[in-house]
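Researcher: Next entry in the queue.
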Amino acid sequence: MLLPKKVKHRKWQKGRGRNRGVASRNNHIAFGQFGLKSMTEGWISSRQIEAARRVLTRYVKRGGKIWIRVFPDRPVTKKGNEVPMGGGKGSPDHYVATIKPGTVMFEMGGLTRESAKEAMDLAGYKLGVRTKFIEKA
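Model: Structure for this entry, 137 residues:
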């Protein structure tokens, strides 16, 4: 699973009105021929990214190349089970990537369009945001 080696701040605040607007970067295909683009905003955990990566690598076998364009660098905290109210903020539990509409999350190259679309559709089921298949123009 992906997680940062070192973070500047161990715990982040959620912030108000978070994740609004559309992506102004990572919003076009840079490396491959095909991509998986988000249609809605949300947080994608490192487990979800890993599950989607496994689907893609299993589907393409040794036929193509895969690029992961998102990285989970945002810590999410969680308090333990049956901990009473108070006592401060919980400890970091997992890491997420912040996704805005229009973010290209995965790219593929070296495949036919049909096989790339099928693999991207299967990977999209593993993610917590709505996605669509795109091609390089």
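Model: The longest helix spans residues 46-60.
Researcher: Noted, moving on.
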